[in-house]
Structure prediction request, 702 residues.
Amino acid sequence: MNKKIIAVLCAVITFGNFTVSAEENTQPTQEIFDITNENLSADNNNVGTIVDAEEDIEYTFGEEYILSEEIEQIQDESVSESVNLTRAILAQSSSEEDLRNRLGGIIDRIMASDYEDVAENDSVLAVKQALSSAVDVYENTEASESELNNEINELSKAIEEIEYVSKQYILSDNNMSDEDMSGYYPDVLIENTNVSYTYDENSPENLQKNDKTNTALNDGKLAYKLTGKTDDDTVAVFDMGEDYYINGVDVFSQFLYFSSTRMNIGGFKVEVSRNGSDYTEAASVDAKIEPEEGETGTLNYVLNTKSKFPVYLGRYVRITVKKDTKSANGQGSAQYNLAEIVIQGFKNPYSKDDLFETLREYSDVDRAIYTDGTYAEYAKAYKAAEAIYWDESINGKEIYTAKVDLQNAYNSLENCAEIKILSGNVTSAADRELYKDFDTDTLNLSYSYAEGTPSQFITQDSDCTRLLSGNCSSTDGSRIVYGNWGTTSPAKVLFDLGEECYISGVDIWEYALNSGCRIGKAEISVSSDGTNFESVSQTDVSEGLLNSINVIEQNFDAKKCRYLMVSATTVRNQVILGEIVIRGYRTGSTENAPYKLGILDYKNDKNARLISLDGENTVNVSGQISSKSNEDKQVVILSAAYSGNKMIDWSFTEVSLKAYEKTDFTNSVNIDGYSDVSIENYVWDSVESGNASAKIKVFGSL
Prediction:
């Protein structure tokens, strides 16, 4: 009977020069099987079979996965005992000088990192406390190996537990499956960075030939790839396109041991740079796995070797995969096979662009519909964030704090608006009893049937009045609209409210004539422009009496819109609609509200700035405009001020714009003391006269 041999894993991960056990840093935990050579059939595609003779289980490895899940499931306690024993042996066998060097290395790297800039305050304090203790022990020439080891472990723990102000992302554009993401990175998001990578000229020639398009290291295939005979270290430089905070790199590779031949990386080194020339070492990983001396069986699995380090800001990540130079029988590795390199980190959370987007997103607030207290907190947070945005001396954590404070204040706004019936069709005594909890605020609204609606609706309701005729519970044939028999296309009713409102509910009254003549699904969508719609409610209808009028209530968070689409699909034969009742409230006044923001675009290039109120009679329209043209341009920015429909001022600024240049501008618009003003901005290229490509609409008050 073949015996099962548990491998003593010697993979270690180094931060600076300190060591973490392989148990947390290889995935899955490896087991070694005593297998005869006949049990492995390998070809040029590295596909073969491992047979565990003791358990009589066959495992296949190939392009997709090296080990099946079953191998992970049969691990027993002896594996972790072995790993723990290995950890103890490694720690005990390290000399005091080695331990001191490791401790010094991690101290240096923490102090060189940028973690303080983007970590939560409690995390910064925890690292600083661990760092202070470590420095004391490091400088103590009489410190014991146990004390040095303890400081290494405490610093390692502090790094692992740093809480950053941003979520963790995969930045290397790995095209991994959902299954791989859930298995390896369940709590990590993916940021589309359009990353690219190149190999250093000294990297193995065969590897570069096998990865001609430079996509193999982030194509999402975690199984190994054959890279050819490897005589040198592999150096890959990832260009992220812009600066990111980098705090982790994982390297997926194949470990294969066949008789006396081996394929294994020796580890890897990670360096980060902002300019592509000056690099700072962030991590060094030793990933060698040694079979027991004299072992002639076959081992094969995917190794996920991880490095976690304090965060570094950089655009370029240089990863040097080290060749394996040592084996149990004295031979070097015949080759090594790389699969995937995964870079983790996050965007700059202190970007003023992000703060501007937050200001813009949370600027559309109607003063009249929120309680005084919550609105006052919102206005305070908004003005504070705006001041930080404009303050050129501020470029750090205050930006993030202002953004979060504004988000929290906006989300804490308490709506005090009264929900009313806006559709004007609650007119009968029966209807008023049904909707006795609602007042009415009739709009000048209208509706039409959208394209694709069964023709009989349009024929029967050509003047588009029946759905708002009143008396919701009526079965009068002159009030109800019957769809075409046997047509399952949805009836789509498009309402134009006549003005922007907040809609929080829609009631669809149906006549369920029989089991086949009733609504099976209802959907409500809203839009501000009548073209781009957002679905806010979908309901599968399963209840309601037959041969009766039933109401399908749709309730949702209040959405600001002018247009409303109601879609009703039949179960089988026919949709029969009665009334459609719209619930919500009108938008409030902009009086005392912060002014709104706009985006100024010129030749499809986004250039965003704020509109500021200055003094009693002027609005300053400040901005930045740029051109992607290869020619110099004269650009005219026109600013029109209105109060209601009345034009009260018109001004312009002419800007000389060189090719690929950004230029600031300011228009001072006289608003003549009006308290409710809209500013509309337009951009003309004076060379290509009339080519208006940008506009801002901003509301302000004095």
